[in-house]
From TrEMBL:
PANTHER family reported in the protein's UniProt record: PHOSPHO-2-DEHYDRO-3-DEOXYHEPTONATE ALDOLASE, PHOSPHO-2-DEHYDRO-3-DEOXYHEPTONATE ALDOLASE 1, 2
Highest taxon of source: Eukaryota
Residues the entry annotates as binding phosphoenolpyruvate: R125, K335, R366
Protein name: Phospho-2-dehydro-3-deoxyheptonate aldolase
GO molecular function terms listed in the Swiss-Prot or TrEMBL record: 3-deoxy-7-phosphoheptulonate synthase activity
This protein's record includes keyword Manganese: yes
The EC number(s) this enzyme carries: 2.5.1.54
Organism: Mycoemilia scoparia
Sequence ranges of Low complexity compositional bias: 1-13
Chain residues that bind Mn(2+): C86, H398, E440, D470
Cofactor: binding comment: Binds 1 divalent cation per subunit. The enzyme is active with manganese, cobalt or cadmium ions.
GO biological process assignments: amino acid biosynthetic process; aromatic amino acid family biosynthetic process
């Protein structure tokens, strides 16, 4: 995305101030990373203007509900499960793949609830996770230098389809709509009813003891649900019949995000006026006065999704992404890795969470199993020295990516689990609490990560390697993670340490 107004010098950064005026396009005055250069600016403007006129994908009330739930997560009263594809493909917008991802998230959350005895807040990396940051603008394929693949909403995976196409932004919108529509229909028509859970596919488990343990836990859960139904204990509650499922993506393409940023009545206004969050265009005031009072009752929401995060490559304090994110009402995430200096964190949180709202910011930590002990403690201490109450979420996938001896980009299940377990321990040792996990996963039986209870090795990767981006945990490996975390917390709970 190219804009002639984005020219501040990186050598003399224009740092955001809490007193600076904010608008959905104030990010254009800041330097930007991971830019996409469109050769046809007129076509880009046409696509963005069309998106600006289209309806929002989510409702402001849903965003505010997630804000409330993440407050509980930040205070240890609930646990966050976030998962989905590294980068969605438009081809993933089909009923079977959507249902498989929803199924694994539901089953994982049920296992976590069982072991942790906490509600689980579910956020899917779906219905908008089409953009992908890259370390280089170009790559070499068959001896030819081409633009890097940046995700289906920018260009194509085919080397001959690498020119950024603004029409792909419109395609991303409509694929998001279709995906979200199917998710809503599933959730509202019994797919998530825990009285009739989808079958648990344990046929790939090669370890007999693991299979027996999983079956015992599942049978115990389902027996408990059946018992509650028999005695009528669940008749007055919808908790077991439906779920809240929220969607998320990385807020990378700011012109797209700006087009779906709308002004709406915030909860204070809705309570005062007794009406839903009618969406305004941000120019005209609603038909009640005084005008300056009304201004305090309306907030800017990004209505392309419920939850957005800033990537590790775009979280510069003086950058365009932080400038955009600081003004939206949505709860937001920030990826935190080894390159984040501890003294940066308080400055970043002051900008993104000026009101010290519990759960407003989720810190998604991604170090790698071999590096987490070096970096996480200092980051925890830096946050504890402030008044900010964040959600601490472990992303154990990104820091554990390697290349196999057979040439496949892969991840080790053992390293992923090791980073999660170390994260739990480090938080405990620093008077903190791990509040959630963030996983790249799929509900399919792909062979992209090694290890797990089906004992995948490097030689198995070629049998069903489908990712065009980063390797994902498959259905069973994802369940393995849920069972391991659940058992960890169950043991700690029984020992009286949590």
């Amino acid at each position: 995305m190219t804009s002639p107004t984005r020219t501040p010098s990186a050598s003399s950064p224009n740092l955001p101030s809490l007193d600076d005026a904010w608008s959905p396009d104030s990010w254009r005055t800041k330097p930007i990373k991971q830019d996409v250069v469109y050769t046809d600016r007129e076509a880009l403007d046409s696509a963005i203007n069309r998106i600006r006129d289209l309806p929002p994908l989510v409702a402001p009330e849903e965003v505010d509900k997630l804000r409330d739930l993440l407050k509980d997560v930040s205070e240890g009263r609930a646990f966050l499960l976030q998962g989905g594809d590294c980068a969605e493909s438009f081809d993933y917008c089909n009923s079977s793949q959507i249902e498989d991802k929803l199924k694994i998230l539901l089953q994982m959350s049920l296992v976590l609830i069982w072991g942790m005895r906490l509600p689980v807040v579910r956020i899917a990396r779906m219905a908008g996770q089409y953009a992908k940051p890259r370390s280089s603008s170009h790559e070499e394929i068959d001896g030819k230098k081409v633009l890097s693949y940046r995700g289906d909403n920018v260009n194509g995976i085919d080397p001959n389809d690498r020119d950024p196409d603004p029409q792909r932004l419109l395609m991303a919108y409509f694929h998001s709509v279709a995906t979200l529509n199917h998710i809503r229909s599933l959730v509202n028509t019994g797919f998530a009813d825990l009285h009739h859970p989808n079958s648990w596919d344990l046929g790939y488990v090669k370890d007999d003891s693991a299979r027996d343990h999983y079956k015992a836990v599942i049978n115990s859960m389902l027996d408990s649900i059946s018992f509650m139904k028999t005695i009528g204990a669940d008749q007055s509650s919808e908790v077991l019949k439906t779920i809240d499922l929220f969607i998320s993506h990385e807020g990378l393409l700011l012109e797209y995000e700006q087009a779906l940023t709308r002004k709406a009545l915030n909860p204070a206004a809705r309570a005062l006026l007794g009406k839903p969050a009618t969406i305004f265009d941000g120019v005209e005031s609603p038909p009640f006065k005084p005008k300056d009072f009304v201004g305090h009752l309306r907030s800017w929401y990004n209505l392309s999704t419920h939850f957005l995060w800033i990537g590790d490559r775009t979280r510069q304090i003086d950058g365009a992404h932080v400038e955009y994110f600081r003004g939206i009402r949505n709860p937001i995430g920030v990826k935190v890795g080894p390159s984040m200096a501890p003294e940066e964190l308080p400055r970043l949180l002051d900008i993104l969470d000026p009101d010290n709202e519990p759960g407003k910011v989720t810190l998604i930590t991604r170090y790698g199993a071999s590096k987490i002990e070096k970096y996480l403690p200092a980051h925890i201490r830096a946050v504890k020295a402030t008044s900010h109450k964040v959600v601490w979420c472990c992303d154990p996938c990104h820091g554990n990516t390697t290349t196999s001896s057979t040439g496949y980009k892969t991840r080790s299940f053992g390293a992923i689990l090791e980073e999660i377990e170390k994260s739990i321990t480090i938080h405990q040792n620093n008077d903190s609490l791990l509040n959630g996990i963030h996983l790249e996963l799929t509900g399919d039986h792909v062979t992209e990560c090694t290890g797990g209870s089906e004992n995948l090795c490097e030689g198995d990767l070629s049998s069903n390697y489908r990712s065009f981006c980063d390797p994902r945990l498959n259905y069973l490996q994802s369940l393995d993670i849920a069972f391991k975390i659940s058992k960890n917390y169950e043991n700690s709970r029984q020992a009286g340490s949590m």
